[in-house]
Design a protein that fits this description.
The radius of gyration is 14 Å and the shape is globular. The protein is built from four helices and two strands, in the order αβααβα. About 70% of the residues lie in helices and about 5% in strands. Strands 1-2 form a two-stranded antiparallel ribbon. Helix 1 (about 1-20) packs across helix 4 and helix 2 (about 30-35) packs across helix 3. With about 80 residues, the chain is mainly α.
Length: about 80
């Protein structure tokens, strides 16, 4: 059951990644991130996200970086919830 939940979460993240990667080249560029998040985040916040997630420093977020960042954050939040319980 735990594996299914993990697989479902990964599938959800794949869909989100693909929706952000408008040209489907396997990278979310600053331009794509800005176009998708302009109503939610400032340019500075977008730059901070890119800086923090783009671990290979090529100026874009690839699939592995995206999955690592999004699933890692969820794991951390779940651990915090468990510690409060």
């Amino acid at each position: 059951m735990a594996t299914r939940a993990g697989d479902e979460e990964i599938q959800k993240q794949i869909k989100i990644f693909c929706s952000l990667d408008k040209n489907q080249d396997g990278y979310i560029t600053r331009k794509e991130l800005r176009a998708n998040m302009k109503d939610l985040l400032s340019s500075e916040e977008i730059n901070q996200i890119l800086k923090g997630v783009d671990t290979d420093k090529n100026g874009a977020i690839n699939y592995n970086e995206f999955i690592t960042a999004t699933l890692g954050k969820r794991t951390l939040l779940n651990k915090k919830r468990i510690m409060k319980a």
